[in-house]
Amino acid sequence: MYVERYIQTNGNFDEPFGIADTFISRLRPVLHVANFSKAPITIAQGQLLGHARNPSKWLTKSSEMSPNQNNAVQAHCSFVRKLIQQGSHKHLTSSHTVRSESEITSKAHRNIIEPDDPLAEDPIEGGPKTAETGIDFVSSEKLLSEVHISTDLTQEQQQKIEEVMIQNQRAFGLDGRLGNYEAKVDISMKPGTKPISLPPYSASPANREVI
């Protein structure tokens, strides 16, 4: 299996990590991740590390390349082979292999399955810091005056557009028709839970894909 190189960050562009183009065999299914930052990184369970490809269909065959391209590939392979034979990999700064397993992938997951921290501070009164916007009420009688029609159109074209708007005025949120649903919804929460005010925090790449 061929895995295409993939560089990413956990929300901090100063801490990149990723993989190089890699061939993985059945006998040794290992994918090496290079950490280019100065601190350890945490890879969550299910986090995307690369895109697996079928090498026989994805990679260019030697028969499909020109003689110059074939010569360049052979020269590069010879160079890499010589470096390996000479043991040049010993001059690398450092290399560590770390294996970790975790069943918890996000703070939201911990909030659901774990009990509340008894030492945590009381939540800030007032709940989340959100700004409510007023309802933009537009009367159906003011539809034509609220919609801007380009003045580059001829008067006849503008009149036709106005006729279409009037005939299809139910497609617009007029007279408070959209956004008002007189119903109450019960949201199940932990017993004794109070409103919590938290600053925004970033999600992992795996959680962002789900979101």
TrEMBL record:
<feature type="region of interest" description="Disordered">
    <location>
        <begin position="189"/>
        <end position="211"/>
    </location>
</feature>
<protein>
    <submittedName>
        <fullName>Uncharacterized protein</fullName>
    </submittedName>
</protein>
